[in-house]
Amino acid sequence: MPSFSDRLADAVRRKGPLCVGIDPRWEMLPKRIRVSTEIVDDYARPSLGFLRFQARLLELIQPFAGIVKPQAAFYELIGSTGLNAMRRVLELAKEMGFVTILDAKRGDIASTADAYAQAAFGPTWNADALTINPYLGRDAVEPFLTAAKAGQRGVFVLVRTSNAGAGLFQDLPCNGRPLYRHVADEVVKWNARALGACGLGDVGAVVGATHPRELAELRTAMRHVWFLVPGYGAQGASAADVKAAYLPSGLGAVVNSSRGVTFPFHPDDPQWEAKIVEAAKKAAAELAH
Amino acid sequence: MPSFSDRLADAVRRKGPLCVGIDPRWEMLPKRIRVSTEIVDDYARPSLGFLRFQARLLELIQPFAGIVKPQAAFYELIGSTGLNAMRRVLELAKEMGFVTILDAKRGDIASTADAYAQAAFGPTWNADALTINPYLGRDAVEPFLTAAKAGQRGVFVLVRTSNAGAGLFQDLPCNGRPLYRHVADEVVKWNARALGACGLGDVGAVVGATHPRELAELRTAMRHVWFLVPGYGAQGASAADVKAAYLPSGLGAVVNSSRGVTFPFHPDDPQWEAKIVEAAKKAAAELAH
Is A149 a residue of the active site? Predict the structure, then answer.
């Protein structure tokens, strides 16, 4: 199996940089799907709804995106049956040739981090990559790096997030440079151990599109690091805002859109499938470069 | 229902500061319990083992501890049936009068953080408190604070963690003070909105026992903040190392021990229950003050 970075490069070359974030919410599912779940008891209805919606979603977006990013929080919210649905979306997406990024932003001390890493890359979730939080430091990140390397998987470390209040700690000046630049320096070191044939490594960075200046700075500082770029679409950043994330090769960044592509419809709209196709097509075209 | 901080104060007054961390691992369960799960298929065996072990564990530790802290990673590792076992340990512990802290170290942008908060405090997990990671900043923490306040629950924000490499980012000097002190200042502000009758608030801090000097400093800087103190026991800190975490009232800190109390035996040992009682009794006595 090629390295994670090479599989990601292949997906971007084939389909472009669009990554579709899968954040299912029961109340936003098409009404027809919600009604169709009445065959099971109330506890199981949300997860059956998720299963049906995500299976159709993957088919609809497949021409336009090579990468998907299920968000663990929304599956966890509906309980353990939801986590079965999460397992299934990761499995199905992999079968369909998508690169899968599990967005769970895990982080804990070593033995616990190891359990999260085994869950992410082992039989439980079997994702191609996982998002992780760096606050606990090196020995908390290490188990994720080790497990990723052993299984040819990847991680994306939070560096500069897309939310409005991200700067509270991330922008604090530490020894003359903002905290996120120190995190970025560590990511560069961690990544240097595992470069693929595409010239990029398996240890990526989450860098929000909502901060174009920082994005450009980080691109220069992190020449061999894949960026996972949230913030495009519903969160307000434009395709122009993310341009700085790409390397001259055209690789270097995957750009996430969640609600903008997966829920561009009112639940009552019978044309919801066409709306998803239209939104995915538009996002893919905007991001083509 | 009294506030989270007052329920925690009540537990500490009744039973002392010991918090038992529940980090179940299939390979560490008593062999008798593992064998007893052969009645179900291989996929369900770990979760049945967890259910049996944790139910007995809660009975054994009940005389010595009023607080338990299940660790989400170990439940997640065995898949969605594991998360049923996590739901059950939280439910059973609550029925038995324990204060429950779900250790999941969640953190994400606002809408996602809200989903994690609803999962933690709503019907999915229904925990009394949740550990959270501050790296994403204020608007990422806010949904947890709001949900905690609405449901009389608590959060523990990672400030200074117990792992050896915690200092990589947490100790970086930012405007002349280490990063963790800036996080501590924010926790003090967040906590000030919700003080209970015990004089402490619902927004606590995770401060490792493995850094006694920082623990003492933070105690002085955070007079109304509950500390959740990991690192005692298997991680190497002694009862003397944690003394600085207490306020003159005797309240102010809960001290976690996980493996030291829950797995003080070899899996083949038929006396495993007596070993747990002995370990819990010893920890409670050491921590009494």
Answer: no
